[in-house]
Design brief:
two-stranded antiparallel sheet; 207 residues; alpha/beta; Rossmann fold; 9 strands; five-stranded parallel β-sheet
């Protein structure tokens, strides 16, 4: 659950309106914010607003070992390497004309950054073990913790990839920075809990 799209905070409301305006386009989105701010929820909402019914594929860039990243993203043909006994469809192919979400894009190793930049520039890729390019048609939404610009400044994230990802760039504010949203959000959570538990629940005076 996320309060961004029902916010009373002026800045958050501006972000929500812009996200929904750009959702039907092919513009790449870069959503930054600390853990728990709701980046994945916002990405899913943007997908539903623009590409509902099409594939929605999420890859955790920090969870894929660098040695397996190319195969995970691009797929591979049978025999491409020792353990490749059968063809494998990569995440880019599975995303088709839907949405590819790059969660924790700031965790991509340098070779992964270079490969991703090439895909975004050329809108094509080749599965491991082949030289035949395939078209990449999905819209990309990249998620990162706050501070990606600092990684660029430190030389650990490619500036050209950063600018390519930031077709629309939003810093999602944490709930504690939107005090006017806290009580409505708590009430929404309470209503949801009542429906799920089919019981009674209330907010205490202390809450």
């Amino acid at each position: 659950m996320n309060a961004l799209f029902t916010t009373r905070n002026r800045r958050a409301a501006e972000i929500a309106r812009a996200l929904l305006r750009f959702a039907p386009t092919d513009l790449t989105l870069l959503l930054e914010g600390e853990t728990g701010v709701g980046k994945s929820f916002v990405a899913a909402r943007a997908h539903r607003a623009g590409r509902r019914g099409r594939p929605f594929v999420v890859v955790d860039c920090g969870a894929v070992p660098a040695t397996l990243l190319a195969s995970a993203l691009f797929g591979h043909r049978a025999g491409a390497f020792t353990d490749a006994t059968r063809p494998h469809r990569g995440l880019l192919e599975r995303a088709a004309d839907g949405t590819l979400v790059l969660d924790r894009v700031d965790a991509l190793p340098s070779e992964g950054q270079t490969a991703l930049l090439r895909v975004l520039e050329e809108r094509s890729y080749a599965p491991v073990g082949t030289a035949v390019p395939r078209s990449f048609r999905a819209r990309v939404i990249a998620l990162a913790d706050a501070g990606l610009q600092q990684r660029v400044d430190a030389g650990t994230f490619r500036p050209d990839l950063y600018h390519r990802l930031a077709g629309f760039h939003a810093q999602l504010p944490a709930l504690r920075h939107r005090p006017e949203d806290i009580l409505p959000f708590a009430r929404a959570v309470l209503r949801r809990g009542r429906r799920q538990a089919q019981g009674r629940a209330t907010l205490t005076d202390e809450a």
